Amino acid sequence: MNFVTAPLIADLFLLAILAIGRQEVHDGTVGANSINPIDIMVFFITLAYIAISIDASGLIRYLAFKVLQKGGKVGHRLFFFLYAFFFCLGAFIGNDPIILSGTAFLAYLTRVSSNIIHPRAWIFTQFAIANIASAILVSSNPTNLVLAGAFGIKFIEYTANMIVPVVVTAIVLFPFLLYIVFADEALIPLSIKMHELSEEAKAKKPVNPNIPNAKGEGEESDGAENKELSLEEIMNPFVDKKGAAFGAVLMAITLIVVLVINAISQSNGEHPVFWVTLPAAFVMFVWEISLGWINRHETREIARKGRREVELARAERAIREEQEANQVILEQDQQDSKNANGTSLTLTKSPEEIEMKILEREDGNLTENSHTPTLLVPGNLGGRNPNLSDPLGSSISTLVPKEDNLQNSRSSTSAMSTLDEKKEPVRPETPSPPQGVLGPQSSDQSDLDKRALSEQISRRVELPKQRGHTTLVSLFGDAYLWSQETFPTVTAVVSHLPFALVPFAFSMFVLVQALVTKGWVPVFAYGWDHWVERTGTVGAIGGMGFLSCILCNFAGTNIGTTILLCRVVQAWQDIHHKNGLPISDRAFWGTVYSMAIGVNYGAFSTAFSASLAGLLWRDILARKHIHVRRLDFARVNLPIVAISMAVGCAVLVGEIYVVRGNERYDA
C-alpha cells in the first residue's frame, strides 16, 4: 500500500458500503465549487512535460556546472551561488525538475569533493529552497493550481501577492542555514577540494545519459572508477543545445501566454489554461520525436556498444567471483585433508639427491638426465634433514623418481581436466597449482588460459540471449528498449512524468468531497470561524499557516491538505453568506495566502510523505547511495521550516495590512 493505492482503496471501500455515491465521485473528478480536477491535472502534466524535457536535454546540469565554475572552490560562495540558482530556476519551472536533476548533481558534487564529509547541508538546502521557490508561480506546483482555482485568483494576482513573502524568506533563510543550521566545516568547508578530472576525460565527448548503457562498462565499475565517472558527470556534462534552447523558449512563451489569457479571461469568459499547455506539450513531443528519429542510428550504436561492454564486464566479474570461490573451496579441502592426516606432506630433497648435487658442483660430471629420487616427508619435521633410519620417516616416506613424479602429476591433471570437461561444458578456471610442484607456466599455457577465459566470457554473454518462448512481458520489454534506443529523450521524459499524481489527486478529491457532503467540512469551518473571530487577521494568518504546514504530514501530502482546506474556507464563506455577516478583506486574503505559504513550505517539514517531491527526492538519493532516515529528515528540516514559516507569515501580515483594507470581502 502506498500513496496511490491507499486513497483509492478508501474510495472503493466507501462506495462498497454506500457511504458515498455517484455525486461524490462526479464532483471529485469532474469538479465542483470552482475546483476542476481534470483541468488542473491536464494543465500540470502537460506543463511538467515541457519542464522535464528541459531537464532531459541536460540544460539544468549544464547551468549547474557553470554555477560551479563561477563559485570555484570557495565553499561559502559556491553554497550561495547554488542556493540562488536553485531558487531562480525553481520559481520558473517548478520544484520537480529541480529535484530530478539538482539532487543527482549535488550527490555527485559531494562525492567527488574530498573534504565534504556529509552531503546533508547541500541536499537539504536544495530541497527546501526548491519548494520555497515553487510558491511564486501558480504553474510551479499543483497545490497552487488547486488554490487559485478554488478562489478564482488570477495567476498574475497570485504571483504579485506571494512574491514578497517568498523572496524575503529566501533572503533571511540563507544566513540562518549557513551560520546556524549547517555551521560546520565538515558540511560546508571554507575551501572545497575537488578531485581533478583527467585530460582524457576532459577531451572525451559527453554521452547522452538518456541512452541506455551509454557509459558502457563504467556503469558496472565501483570505487575509484565510479568516482571518476561521477566527476565526469559534473565537469563534462552532456547538453543537447538544440533541445535545450527550443524547450526554454517554448516554456517561456507558454507561461507568458498562460498569464495573459488568465488575466483577460474575466472580461471574455473563463478559458481553461490547459488550452495553452496541451498544444505546447504536443509541439515539444513532436520536436523530440523528430530529433530522435533523425539521430536513431547514432543512438542505437551507442546503446549497442555500451550494452556489449556492460555484458562483458558482468561476465568477467562473475567468472572472477567463481574463481575466488573455487580457490576458497580448494584451500578448505586442503586444510581438511591436513587435519585428517595429522600432518601435511611436503616436497623436499632426498639424501641421494643432496649427495649428487655436491658431486655435480665438485666435478661437473653428472648430466641432467640423472634420475634423482624425490622424498615426501612430514611437514612437521621443520628444518631437520630426514634420514632413512628414522622410523617415522621410513614408515611414511615414499621414494619416487623426480621425472616420473612430474609425468604422473601431468597425466593425472590432464585426465582430471578431460573428465571435468565432459561433465561441464563451461567450467570456471581452476587455480593454478603451486609453482614448486609443476614449475612455472609457459607462455603458451598462459595464452591458452587467456583464450579459454575469453571463450567463457563469450559463452556467458550469449547465454542470456538464448531465451525461450516469446511472452507479453518480453514483447513489452523489447518495445521499451527499442524506444529507449530510438527516442531516448522522449522515453526518459515520459518515464519521469508524475503520472502517479493523477489517481492520487482524483482519489483525494473524492474523499474530501465525501467530507463535504457528509457534513464534516462545515464542522471544521465553524471551528475556523470561531478562531478568526477571537484572533483577527493576525490569528487567521498564523493559524492557517500552522494548520496547512502541519496537515501536509498527515492529510495525504500537501495536495490533499490544499484540497481539504480550500473546501473548509469555502464552507466558511457559505456560513457568513447565509448569516449575512461579512468577512473582512484582510482576514479572508490573509487566510488564503497563508495557506499557500503553508502548503508549499510544509513539503519540507517532518515527513517524506508531506509532498510527492519529498518521496521523489528520497528515492533519487537512495539510488545515489545516500540514505536519509525519517528521524534525520524531521530533525534537520524542523528548524528550517520553522524559520521559513515565521518569516513568511510575518511578512504576509505586513503586506496584508498595507495593501488590504478592513472593508467587507465580496465573494
UniProtKB/TrEMBL annotation:
Location relative to the cell: Cell membrane
Compositionally biased intervals (Polar residues): 337-349, 386-398, 406-417
GO biological process, one term: transmembrane transport
Top-level division of the source organism's lineage: Eukaryota
InterPro entries for this protein: Cit_transptr-like_dom
Domain Citrate transporter-like: 37-281
Membrane topology: Multi-pass membrane protein
Key words of the record: Cell membrane, Membrane, Signal, Transmembrane, Transmembrane helix, Transport
Primary location recorded for the protein, binned into one broad class: membrane
Cellular component terms (Gene Ontology): membrane; plasma membrane
Disordered, as annotated region: 204-225, 330-451
Segments of skewed composition (Basic and acidic residues): 350-364
The keyword Ribosomal protein is assigned to this record: no
Spans through the membrane: 37-60, 80-109, 158-182, 243-261, 273-294, 497-516, 592-617, 638-659
Pfam families listed in its UniProt record: CitMHS
Protein's name according to its UniProt entry: Citrate transporter-like domain-containing protein
Organism: Sclerotinia sclerotiorum (strain ATCC 18683 / 1980 / Ss-1) (White mold)
